[in-house]
Amino acid sequence: MRNKWRLPHPATMFFLMTLAVIFLSWIFEIYGMSVHLPQTGEEIRVQSLLSPEGMRWMLRNAVTNFTGFAPLGLVIVAMFGIGVAQHSGFIDACIRIGIRRHHNPLRIVLLVVFAGLLSNVVGDAGYIILLPIAATLFHSVGLHPIAGIITAYVSVSCGYSANVMLTTLDPMLASWTQEAADNMNVLAGNTGPLSNFYFFFVSTFLVAFIIYQITRKSLLPMLGTYEGDVKFNGYKQLSRKERRALWSAVIVGLIYAAIVFMATFSSWGILRSVSGGLARSPFIEGSLFLLSFGIGLMGMTYGFTSGRYRTDGDVIEGLTQPMKLLGAYFVIAFFAAQMFAYFDYSHLNKCIAIISADVLSSIHVGNLWILILFIFFIALVNLIMVSATAKWTFMSFIFVPVFAGMGFSPDLVQCAYRIGDSATNAIAPFMFYLPLILTYMQQYDAQSTYGSLLKYTWRYSVSILLAWTLLLVLWYLCRLPLGL
Asked: Which of 99, 264, 277, 376 could form a disulfide with 283 if both were Cys (CB 3.0 to 4.6 A apart)?
């Protein structure tokens, strides 16, 4: 029976959310809603999008809102590399040789989970590159491809702070924690990039266990067998020529990786920042392009060696291959870009977050309970303001001194913040990559909407939030060090 409560198409959903933002900005400006930024004292007032100036702004920026949409360029650049690798047969060859050796479907699930958790080493690349590969992997071993997308998505998003290595997020958050402590005359203690390393190292295995168990016991039975239009014709052994082409591509990839790492970590170091560090360095800021170029390079090598490619025209055809998929993404992204831009212009996100933070700060309960409430509060705010750094730029100046008065160190506050910020990423309607996730899902089920995504992901977010919070409480009670 058709579900009469099905949500509208993702593009329609973002359009309706845009109308809601416009209406709310008008209402809250009438009532004079305003806040003061804690780090500067600057007053921020809600700006109506229905005022003459607001309407002029909407008309002037309709195009630039779309072209300036942060994930748009990243998605296109990443898709070039994936397109060549897929069109040449390189990804298919990797999957075929991998399945032959590891046909157990549950091993594939575990592989996708850990790949998603570790992907935040290179920022947001996991959202763009891992999800379509995970769908193909799941499909190739008889699992539902949308289960692959969901598993990869929650691994990347809910586990965004968990890793066994230093990530791009660690130094950025640590710098704001340090600045908040200095400006508010709080004893900073340990606030370096590795200040939460021990805790999030252990958290990686906790989050991986939760995602694996929910996928195995809930998601896979719920989705059942895939019976859609995208067919997988099984796999066959690689021929000698294909095997030689695959090894050639892998060798070229290793040489490319060695060159990139030498250009970053050697004394030559042209991909490091001017100060010699990795923060804001060409290596970090260009990591997605470097990754996409490397994947495309391996795809080209495989294509020419295997005989699939003969001219540069074949390569160009591979580059244009993903544009068919991105047609639907562009439509969804256009409306999403307007909604995000309107939300930011109106200052609704900052006003709601700061007012809510002030309310939480005024609550008087036991110290440990207020820390737990803080985690849940961040998890709720994350639904409307998903950028971890954007929230922490002003929330650190509110909560670091408040918790310092209760005896909590800045690194513990930062750790609690990162739990709440990560756990609800998978269910956030304002997630920047949501249009792309829904586009991937619609490849296999044209009826996929945000409601479909929410139905599959809420268990992950709730379970991870509760278990991760409990781990921090136990860690705190045992007085274990959070990091280096």
From this structure: 264
